[in-house]
Protein backbone atom coordinates (compact mmCIF):
# COMPACT_ATOMS: atom_id res chain seq x y z
CA UNK A 1 0.00 0.00 0.00
CA UNK A 2 1.35 3.42 -0.89
CA UNK A 3 2.20 5.95 1.78
CA UNK A 4 -0.03 8.45 0.01
CA UNK A 5 -3.07 6.15 0.18
CA UNK A 6 -2.43 5.46 3.86
CA UNK A 7 -2.13 9.19 4.62
CA UNK A 8 -5.36 9.89 2.75
CA UNK A 9 -7.13 7.16 4.72
CA UNK A 10 -5.91 8.60 8.03
CA UNK A 11 -7.02 12.07 6.91
CA UNK A 12 -10.48 10.69 6.08
CA UNK A 13 -10.49 8.81 9.41
CA UNK A 14 -9.80 12.07 11.30
CA UNK A 15 -12.51 13.89 9.34
CA UNK A 16 -15.06 11.20 10.21
CA UNK A 17 -13.92 11.32 13.84
CA UNK A 18 -14.35 15.13 13.88
CA UNK A 19 -17.86 14.84 12.42
CA UNK A 20 -18.91 12.31 15.08
CA UNK A 21 -19.28 14.56 18.14
CA UNK A 22 -20.51 11.63 20.18
CA UNK A 23 -16.93 10.28 20.27
CA UNK A 24 -15.03 13.34 21.45
CA UNK A 25 -17.26 16.25 22.52
CA UNK A 26 -17.56 15.68 26.24
CA UNK A 27 -20.31 18.26 26.81
CA UNK A 28 -22.48 16.89 24.02
CA UNK A 29 -25.63 15.01 24.94
CA UNK A 30 -24.71 12.45 22.24
CA UNK A 31 -21.44 11.69 24.05
CA UNK A 32 -23.38 9.53 26.52
CA UNK A 33 -25.51 7.78 23.87
CA UNK A 34 -24.06 4.27 23.48
CA UNK A 35 -26.01 3.53 20.29
CA UNK A 36 -24.71 6.64 18.53
CA UNK A 37 -21.17 5.93 19.71
CA UNK A 38 -21.34 2.34 18.43
CA UNK A 39 -22.64 3.54 15.05
CA UNK A 40 -19.80 6.09 14.85
CA UNK A 41 -17.22 3.42 15.71
CA UNK A 42 -18.63 1.23 12.91
CA UNK A 43 -18.00 4.04 10.42
CA UNK A 44 -14.44 4.36 11.64
CA UNK A 45 -13.86 0.60 11.52
CA UNK A 46 -14.99 0.55 7.88
CA UNK A 47 -12.64 3.43 7.02
CA UNK A 48 -9.69 1.82 8.82
CA UNK A 49 -10.32 -1.49 7.03
CA UNK A 50 -9.07 0.24 3.88
CA UNK A 51 -5.54 0.05 5.30
CA UNK A 52 -5.96 -2.71 7.90
CA UNK A 53 -8.32 -5.52 6.90
CA UNK A 54 -8.39 -6.86 10.47
CA UNK A 55 -9.58 -3.56 12.00
CA UNK A 56 -12.02 -3.84 14.89
CA UNK A 57 -13.54 -1.41 17.37
CA UNK A 58 -10.62 -1.96 19.76
CA UNK A 59 -8.13 -1.19 16.95
CA UNK A 60 -10.07 2.01 16.19
CA UNK A 61 -10.05 3.04 19.87
CA UNK A 62 -6.28 2.46 20.01
CA UNK A 63 -5.80 4.44 16.80
CA UNK A 64 -7.81 7.36 18.20
CA UNK A 65 -5.83 7.25 21.45
CA UNK A 66 -2.53 7.20 19.54
CA UNK A 67 -3.56 10.15 17.37
CA UNK A 68 -4.76 12.16 20.37
CA UNK A 69 -1.68 11.32 22.41
CA UNK A 70 0.68 12.38 19.61
CA UNK A 71 -1.33 15.56 19.15
CA UNK A 72 -1.16 16.41 22.88
CA UNK A 73 2.61 15.86 22.96
CA UNK A 74 3.15 18.21 20.02
CA UNK A 75 0.73 20.77 21.48
CA UNK A 76 2.63 20.69 24.77
CA UNK A 77 5.88 21.42 22.91
CA UNK A 78 4.25 24.36 21.12
CA UNK A 79 2.87 25.79 24.37
CA UNK A 80 6.18 25.37 26.19
CA UNK A 81 8.10 27.10 23.40
CA UNK A 82 5.73 30.08 23.50
CA UNK A 83 6.00 30.35 27.30
CA UNK A 84 9.76 30.79 27.21
CA UNK A 85 9.34 34.26 25.78
CA UNK A 86 11.38 33.44 22.72
CA UNK A 87 10.70 35.24 19.46
CA UNK A 88 8.11 34.14 16.93
CA UNK A 89 10.87 32.51 14.86
CA UNK A 90 11.76 30.23 17.79
CA UNK A 91 8.25 28.86 18.42
CA UNK A 92 8.17 25.09 17.98
CA UNK A 93 6.70 23.96 14.68
CA UNK A 94 4.77 20.66 15.03
CA UNK A 95 6.20 17.72 13.08
CA UNK A 96 2.88 15.85 12.79
CA UNK A 97 1.37 16.23 9.35
CA UNK A 98 -2.13 15.92 10.86
CA UNK A 99 -1.52 18.31 13.77
CA UNK A 100 -3.82 21.08 12.49
CA UNK A 101 -6.55 18.58 11.65
CA UNK A 102 -6.89 17.67 15.34
CA UNK A 103 -7.13 21.24 16.66
CA UNK A 104 -10.85 20.69 17.29
CA UNK A 105 -9.78 18.68 20.38
CA UNK A 106 -8.10 21.66 22.08
CA UNK A 107 -10.85 22.41 24.59
CA UNK A 108 -11.74 18.77 25.32
CA UNK A 109 -8.91 17.88 27.70
CA UNK A 110 -10.10 19.93 30.64
CA UNK A 111 -8.81 19.73 34.20
CA UNK A 112 -11.16 18.28 36.74
CA UNK A 113 -11.17 18.26 40.52
CA UNK A 114 -10.53 15.09 42.42
CA UNK A 115 -10.00 14.14 46.00
CA UNK A 116 -6.65 13.15 47.36
CA UNK A 117 -6.47 9.84 49.17
CA UNK A 118 -3.47 10.99 51.21
CA UNK A 119 -4.26 11.37 54.89
CA UNK A 120 -3.90 14.84 56.35
CA UNK A 121 -3.66 16.17 59.90
CA UNK A 122 -7.36 16.94 59.88
CA UNK A 123 -9.16 13.67 59.07
CA UNK A 124 -12.20 15.54 57.76
CA UNK A 125 -10.35 17.80 55.31
CA UNK A 126 -10.19 16.94 51.64
CA UNK A 127 -7.37 18.11 49.41
CA UNK A 128 -8.31 19.23 45.90
CA UNK A 129 -5.91 18.19 43.15
CA UNK A 130 -6.23 19.16 39.49
CA UNK A 131 -5.84 16.27 37.07
CA UNK A 132 -5.97 16.11 33.28
CA UNK A 133 -8.83 13.98 32.04
CA UNK A 134 -7.55 11.63 29.35
CA UNK A 135 -10.00 9.79 27.23
Automatic annotation (TrEMBL):
Protein origin, superkingdom: Eukaryota
Domain MADF: 12-110
InterPro entries named in the record: MADF-dom
UniProt-recorded name of the protein: MADF domain-containing protein
Record's compositionally biased regions (Low complexity): 126-135
Region (Disordered): 106-135
Pfam family, one: MADF_DNA_bdg
Amino acid sequence: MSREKESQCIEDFINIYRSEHCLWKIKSREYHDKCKRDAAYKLLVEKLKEIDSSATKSVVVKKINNLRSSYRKELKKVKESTRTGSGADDVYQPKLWYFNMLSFLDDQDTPRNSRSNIESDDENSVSEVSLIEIK
